[in-house]
Write a structure and sequence with these properties.
The protein is of the alpha/beta class and 267 residues long. The chain is built from nine helices and eight strands. The protein has a single domain, classed as TIM Barrel.
């Protein structure tokens, strides 16, 4: 395969990858996924993600942050730990951070406090934010609007919203991260309809592996585990819905990810 893709969100620290990570990375490279950004969802996970990025400098980068599910564990000491992690060159964004009122594993007040704190950190270190939002669009938008002028950039990770939410995010100059959700004709219809309206210069691709195995790919593989090697499948679905070629989608999304995360060709 001649295309080159960047997976902006893979959860390679997940236990399901512990026994065969080298094979997972090899399959990704063979599929045309040249680089990945490993997601940090809490402090221990962010430390592991940074270590993975250091161990695979030709392919991996990472983020550092506290997911809203873990917001209740966010304390003053987390700030110092995040600052230390974000000082490393291969830790390229703050997050995954945001709001999730769908599950409310942490109380909404704690989520809002942790989110604002991480936006402050992102503004201070001048690194972009890797954003999560589910069933909390109004509060998420209000907090983000307050800090957006101080941020170097942001991406709506795993965007599954409709055209109105898309326009709200584009108005804040966010990038849009699209996963295999786009292949689900039952749950992903709003995203499928919104996708053609994402400007080419704002679109990025991700698997969110091991989660979100594309529904139309599930019958073709022997596992329910998603992995970065399936990113070309997402890219093809995106290209079809946008009426574009796979090559053009690959080129645009790779260029956007390089720019957004500040990656260099020789890194």
């Amino acid at each position: 395969m001649n295309i080159s893709l960047i997976d902006i969100g893979s959860n390679l620290t997940h236990d399901s990858f512990a026994s065969d990570l080298d094979a997972v990375l090899a399959r990704a490279r063979s599929a045309g996924v040249s680089r990945q950004v490993v997601t940090g969802a809490d402090i221990p996970g962010s430390v592991k993600a940074a270590a993975l990025a250091d161990a695979h400098p030709c392919m991996l980068y990472s983020t550092a942050g506290v997911h809203p599910h873990h917001a209740l564990s966010f304390h003053d000491g987390c700030r110092a730990e995040l600052y230390e992690l974000l000082g490393r060159p291969r830790v390229v964004a703050v997050g995954e951070c945001g709001l999730d009122y769908y599950r409310n594993f942490s109380p909404p007040e704690a989520q809002r406090s942790a989110f604002a704190a991480q936006l402050e950190i992102a503004a201070a270190v001048r690194k972009p934010v890797f954003l999560h939002q589910r069933d909390a669009h109004g509060d998420f938008l209000a907090i983000l609007e307050e800090y957006r002028g101080s941020l170097s950039g942001g991406v709506a990770h795993c965007f599954t919203g409709d055209r109105r939410q898309l326009e709200d995010y584009l108005a804040l100059d966010l990038y849009i991260g699209v996963t295999g959700w786009v292949s689900d004709e039952r749950r992903g219809q709003a995203l499928r309809e919104a996708l053609p309206h994402v400007p080419a210069q704002r679109l990025m691709l991700e698997t969110d592996a091991p989660y979100l195995l594309p529904r139309d790919l599930a019958p073709c593989v022997k596992t329910r585990r998603n992995e970065p090697a399936f990113l070309p499948h997402v890219a093809r679905a995106v290209a079809a819905l946008r009426g574009e070629t796979l090559d053009s989608v690959a080129a645009a999304t790779t260029r956007n990810a390089m720019r957004f995360f500040g990656l260099q060709a020789g890194d």
